[in-house]
Each structure stands twice: as C-alpha cells, then as structure tokens.
Design a protein that fits this description.
The chain has an eight-stranded antiparallel sheet with strand order 2-3-4-5-6-7-1-8. By secondary structure, the protein is α+β, with helices and mostly antiparallel strands. It is built from three helices and eight strands; from the N terminus they run βααββββββαβ. It starts with a strand and ends in a 5-residue tail after the last strand. It has one domain: 2-Layer Sandwich (Alpha-D-Glucose-1,6-Bisphosphate, Chain A, domain 4).
C-alpha cells in the first residue's frame, strides 16, 4: 500500500471547509491530476454518494464510505488495477480550520512489483493536489510540504 498525507491550515470556518471537501466534484478544481469529477449517485454529498473521477488516463468509481459532518469524509475509489481511499478530516482552530488529507493507493496483481515507482509518482501527485487544496481553501500547508 502506498500512502500520502498533508496538513493544511485555512481561515475557512470548519463547516465551509467541510462542505467544499465533501463534494468530490470539487477534486477537479484543486487536484491537477483529476481531469473530470462527476457525481453519479446520491443527492449531493453524503454517505453512499458516488462519483466517477478521471485521474490521468484512469477512471475511478468513488463511493463515500464515511460521512461525519462537519468532521470527516472518507471515499473509496475502485478500478480493476488500483484502489484508492481518500480521507479528509476537518478540525476547528482558533483562526479557522485544520484539514488533514490522507490518500492510500493499493495496486493489484503484478502491478505491485512497481509500487516503488508508483510511490514516487504518487508522492508528487499528492504534493500537487495538497498545494491545490491549500490554494482552494485560502490556506497554507503546515506539513513537510510547506
């Protein structure tokens, strides 16, 4: 399993930050790797909502598996060759919100042999996404990717 984590401090109120993060169609706005994000199931953000995201040349079908408003959204994406789980946690701070973004990527079958190569690429993609998320939330990264 390949993992990525970033922390962003934002002046946005936790409820507003959560609302933005909970709508996975917004991935298209802040994650440069996401070329298209469309909701295909459910009525707006929420538990069980489904989204199709085109990431590079791969299409992943995401389902929201955990939804604890206004604190946590966990979505699991599937593709025959990879699984991805994205977790976004929002905590209140005196000046707004702290967002922890975590992503896990699991490859299938013989692709697992390429995990070291995928890890380097996944870290770069994660940094680009975290930087985009910081911009979208008018915030700044407070993890090692500052």
């Amino acid at each position: 399993m390949i993992t990525y984590s970033a922390v962003i401090d934002s002046p946005m109120a936790p409820v507003a930050a959560f609302a933005y993060l909970a709508d996975l169609t917004n991935f298209e706005d802040w994650d440069p790797g996401t070329k298209e994000a469309v909701q295909v199931g459910g009525q707006g953000p929420g538990l069980g909502s489904e989204y199709d995201l085109k990431v590079g040349m791969v299409s992943l079908h995401y389902t929201v598996q955990e939804f604890d408003e206004p604190k946590l959204v966990v979505a699991h994406g599937t593709h025959p060759l990879v699984d991805s789980t994205d977790s976004m946690t929002v905590e209140p701070t005196p000046s707004g919100s702290r967002i922890t973004y975590e992503a896990e990527l699991s490859t299938a079958g013989p692709l697992r042999l390429l995990d070291p190569v995928f890890n380097r690429a996944f870290q770069r993609m994660g940094d680009d996404a975290a930087d985009g998320l910081a911009r979208a939330l008018d915030g700044r990264r407070t993890d090692d990717g500052v």
